[in-house]
Amino acid sequence: MSERRKPYPFDQIEPKWQAIWDQNRSFHAPNPGEENFDPAKPKYYALDMFPYPSGAGLHVGHPEGYTATDIVARYKRLRGFNVLHPMGWDAFGLPAEQYAIKTGQHPAVTTRENVAKFKTQLKRIGFSYDWEREVNTTDPAYYKWTQWIFLQIYHSWFNPETKKAEPISSYRGDDPDSVRLAYVAEVPVNWCQELGTVLANEEVIDGKSEVGGFPVVRRPMRQWMLRITALADRLLDGLEDLDWPDSLKALQRNWIGRSEGAEIRFAVVGSSRCDDRTPQPGVPTISVFTTRPDTLYGATYMVIAPENPLVDQITTDEQRESIKAYRAEIATKSDLERTDLAREKTGAFTGAFAMNPVNQERIPIWIADYVLMGYGTGAIMGVPAHDERDLEFAKKFGLQIVPVIQAPEKTAEESIGYTGIGTAINSPLLNGLSRVEATARIIDWLEQNGHGRRDTRYKLRDWLFSRQRYWGEPFPIIWREGKHEALPESELPLEPPALDDFKPTGTGEPPLAKAKDWIRYSDNASRETNTMPQWAGSCWYYLRYCDPGNDQRFVGREPEQYWMGGRNDEGQMTNVEGMTKPEPAGTSSFDIRPSSFPAKPGGVDLYIGGVEHAVLHLLYARFWHKVLFDLGHLSTPEPFQRLVNQGMILGEDSRKMSKRWGNVIDPIDVIEIHGADAFRCYEMFMGPLEQMKPWSMKGVEGVSRFLARVWRLIMEENQAGEWVLSDEVQDVDPQKSEVKILHATIKKVTGDIETLSFNTAISQMMIMVNALTNAPAKPLSALRTLLVLLNPFAPHLTSELWQTLARKFPAGSDQITAQPWPEHDERLLIEDEIEIVLQVNGKFRDKITVALDATDAALETAARSNPKVQNAVGEQTIRKVVVVPKKLVNVVAN
RNA sequence: GCCGAUGUGGCGAAAUGGCAGACGCAACGGACUUAAAAUCCGUUGGGCUUAACGGCCCGUGCCGGUUCGAGUCCGGCCAUCGGCACCA
Prior knowledge:
Isoleucyl-tRNA Synthetase, Domain 1; seven-stranded mixed beta sheet; single chain; 39 strands; four-stranded parallel beta sheet; Rossmann fold; globular; RNA-binding; alpha/beta
């Protein structure tokens, strides 16, 4: 077969350089105290979301973010940073186990194979990972520390006074188990029969499992929970100083869902007489949560959730049958049906009445499924005049509607249904007040009279942390006489038992329960049989990278403080004490000087990954990080300072890549044809990183042509068809125009890498290459600078060309990775003559070339005398002339 | 319904409030070649007009506003995508 001629020999140079990088440990980042550690270098931590190594291998979506971080990592190294750029494997979890059940192969085996496959593929793309720091969440040496961190959480509680996680020993109450950050609760969970496990709320989409799309039902079970809600405020407020996309911060805020309002207590009163206002003996008051306490006078009924246990206590004998019927009807409905917004409101009257504490009105108590047991107190006050749902309900059941907020320019009657900001009416204590004033006053009143208090509620639920699966971290917990206790740290890691049959039992009992010997801990104690969810390992992997081999601690203090310790970015290196770099080491391998840099909450300088992890991984990891920070194990309150979501890459047909459409692109196929450098550059040239964009093979060819042009700037084919250094490459001074374009390119590429605008950086380099292509002599200095600029994007090609140049023209080093990043000289960008745009009434008419120092008056004169300007002005009178120095002249006429 | 993105040629996209469409793809024309591929050079938003050089008008989802000047800023719509959704 006649092999299609390659535009340049990437198939030879790419493996060559990958081997050299491996041998030279080119991308190994030394830790403080290690050989070759240079304390004068600032650190930079560029992190990718590590992949789940599936059997399918990489697709083109994976390397998009990876290429972006790799470019930044290589760029920062050239700028003199000590760069941490690691990779690892998030390998516990459902898909491996599902596959194992299907094929009978142990998940450890398939995981090993898949990791090997992924690693080979990643290496072929030429990523500059420090593979000596590779981590794998399924490695006992790794999950030993996942289990250890769980124990730290288990041994902690959230102290509401300090607003911090603290060791449980600081808790003064009598029931520590009720406040632990890891606790056991009998809770209604999302049970998936098909997967044989419970799932987190986040893993359930529209009543179906995110993995597999199987039906999910609610069912009460004993589960491990993590008290993430205790940190809700901290997680919310901590977003403030992070360099994350606003849209992503909004997603997290939304998910946490803080609502501020009041809890109000309503006494249940006797139902026998219509004027009976005495509290029912033995019946507790009903608490409601509302964000609109200012509408309390308009509360004309109450609704409690059908599942609320209070229903049994308050229902009157006359209503018992209809309540029972309604509850039975609700029980048959799925969550999906129940939350169908289009559905008409339903409900039933309990026969009981409550007393509105502010005006002593007797109001009926209903049950209805539009009130959810899981939010607030499972009961609401109905204010039909100023809440859409309540209004709909009140109209349907003929309940009283009293307007208590007057909308601007409307009558009281017209204000029914108004939910905006207005003035309080029909509310003796509040009349005339604005919403803010009324809310403050009624809360004061409630607190003073013992009817309620200020309160904040969250949509966020505690994190359901246990799974009934085999392929996950076992809990380091033992049960003795019905009580849980921590496994001693000395017994970590706790490895799962070797099981031949790891299928789910189907009963909700975890597969680990089958390992009778393993479960038995001692005569009177047995092991916990649940496993942790997949998110556990990914909650802290970025910390392990800092010190992956440490067997004494989950991460050494010094490496953690070095890599995570604030953001030592250049922008901040100049403004404190005139310092440009951390001072050289003293007695320690380096000095930690937290005061030297303005505090940044996050430690990782750049974190790139998919937006699908916005509320799962990114929230969980922040939660663990904050707990570990509070407990004194970490030096920053947030894990990730700067976060970017790469956009999805679609198939050539603009549909989501999937086997179903047959539009999946395999990166290795692309690399076979065009080489890794072209693949990398194309992925970055497609468009803005954050944007969703379709793949185009033609586009790859275009970028490949660009790289071939770079190659041919420097190489030519001799008679024998071999590539040799071109005679046109000469050690001459570049021409003036070439100097200008060179410095413009340095400026553009440098700025664009900092802002991750890789597409425009590449386009500028194309412009420069196009300009050099037909130059009779190719100036060596310009070529060398170009190669350094292009190196982060196309590392193999530029390494090879650099080395080739160095043979004929010896430079400091024949390794391009040892070169400093070039700096542009602003003076070389300035021209002596400058183009001025002439406009008439804002419309472009002509452009003229004038001396750089032309005065405004001279520009105006030139514009007025320009024939095209005169023509456009015609008979009109010139009213005004706007002169923008060095830019344009706009003649205003009419 | 609420929150958040996005809307520019045939396509992917550029554009500190100052020449809209850089760069690339596709298409077309030319050079080289016996020929093709590759490579190099050129044209390429739409319309009107000129024998030609050229000239003129329109154009960044829609409507309005601010401004000497708006793809960009402000207000109101429409469409597409994503997230949340009876959250009190």
